[in-house]
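Q: Structure for this?
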Amino acid sequence: MAVASGRWVALSRPLLGAAALSSAVPAGEGQPREASTRRRGRTPQFVRSQAPPRTERMAVDQDWTSVYPTAAAFKPASVPLPIRMGYPVKRGVPPPKEGNLELIKIPNFLHLTPPAIKKHCAALKDFCTEWPSALDSDEKCEQHFPIEIETIDYVSAGASIRNPKARVVTLRVKLSNLNLDEHAKKKLIKLVGERYCEDTDILTITTDRCPLRRQNYDYGIHLLTVLYHESWKTEMWESEKSEEDMEEYIWENSRSQKNALDTLLRIKVSENVSNVTEEELLASEVVNDYRNSVIALKNEGETEVNMSRYKESVKKLLNVKA
Amino acid sequence: MLRSLRGLVCHPRKLDHGYALHTAAKDCLSSLASQDVQALAEGPRAVFYTSENDPANHTEHHEGRHYSIPLEEVKAVFPHGLPPRFQQQIKTFNEACVMVRKPALELFAYLKNSNFAHPAVRYVIYGEKGTGKTMTLCHVVHYCSRQGWLVLHIPDAHLWVKNCKELLQSSYNKDRLDQPLQASFWLKNFKTSNERFLKEIKTQRKYVWGKRDSTEEGKPLGEVVEQGLARVRNASDVVGVVLKEIKQQCQLGSFRLLVAVDGVNALWGRTTLKKEDKSPVSPEELTLVYNLRKMMRNDWSGGAVVTTLSQTGSLFKPRCAYLPQELLGKEGFDALDPFVPILVPNYSAAEFESCYRYYRHCRWLQHPRAHTAEGQEELRFLSGSNPWQLERLAGPL
């Protein structure tokens, strides 16, 4: 009997969730009958005993880096977390982690937990030199090394150690560290366009057009030098800069100034006050107030504060009384 | 008696919503309005109504209250000015009740104290969609017409830059385009509202309209307008002449001029019109727009210019735009600068209460839950105290 049952095990598929055969078979005659009924239902006869998952035997303070030493797929039996992922069934919850393809498909960083990173750093320490003790704060770093170069090295198990992504070089520099005057700064910003960030005042140049990292680095430095020198030069055609090219609103010689002066002159004429020159009008406080409010409105956009300021200044300018 | 009338009023509610409700309920409500309505009012009427019908006497004391304009005056002063939904409301309630609000009172104060020897001050009413800018403008127009000013009311400048079936090349200036239909329509309404002035103002030079038509110097302006209505081809030029004459003569001081333009951002935006060779038309190529832009300048004195910004009919502007620079654009802002901006906000708590009471008083809110305090709070929340939303919500109730 035991031999027969062994043969069945060898021939049939294991059935998950079914009880072990030893407990299912009461007598020898019953077995072929039960076996035939089971096989008729196209279910496999033998059930492999299901061992409990490894997670139940994991201690809370175990060494996780040995569970996931390298990048590996998500193994639900090895990760002791009750994760659910996927679209929930109607009025239900997302499916659990057992047999969940969604969790297996996505990349996971279980091999890069903070203790793992610490171990990596400890291993790499032997290949590094000491950080210079004089550079102990960010400001000092920026003061002595205003240009930051960023390069990435790639290591992978494969036939070749080369990686074309390794040739990318990124240069970052703050414009306040460069010696630029007003015109040069505006011209530089116009020349680089999107590479400049206004909030942090950092110019970022990314070069990858050359095949080697050293060549890209040289090209990046060359670009920076050329930009710096070109922005200091003033070409002839720059005098044709028009209002649309301006970066911010300048009130002098604008339509708003003309309108305001026209209106004020007409007011003065109607009051029979003559010999009021434009300079006097421009220097008066009312016009100054108006000028500031218009500049704020155009440069900063329209907010409650700006609009009410503009309203007050126009009321004073035009003598509109409530 | 009252109960049976109430039953009558309840039935139309079940029919359909919105516009149809206006017409169905109109018959029932018009009979109601003739009853002694004051006895049916919930609470004291003074909270939401004031009998002071002259806008000149409106003060902060009247703030939040409705005042009614006699219907004959509505026909005379506003032949084309009121928003269409408000016109339906007038037909339904058989009365034109306008709420007195702070922006309008502010404008009255400015207009009362303005120095007419100085160049005309430009006021721009702006605000989010549906907060009551056009109604504020109409309130100001009513005030000025009561005061005896000449009112130049352009109800919606957007109508002149879109959906124009006929575009003629102008005979006066080859580069410009005429819009005879819009011009004649506006002239007709202008004549209705300003009959008296058209007889008084005389032309100051001779105008030649064609080979046989001309208007001599010294003729009343009414004749020029008749010419425009008779010969529709010249209507746009007639509009230009009318604007020019009025502007010139206003400085002499015999009358005050109010230029009221709704949707002034249309003058400096884009148009959806195309010339015969399918090239787009820019606004200054339209005679009407060109002449109106000349009126918006402040090189004349003896009056005021009150305008509204409107996103509702505007072209190529996002729905959430309501600030002056967004709607006027750079060109418009520079042209109108310096102007006094006036913000029209949503209803305050008191104004909302007043509007709600008015609707209840007119039996417009029929749903039983609308009469409760929770119903009022629900209405306040759903509409966000926005007058337009409130009016739309109260329609099917």
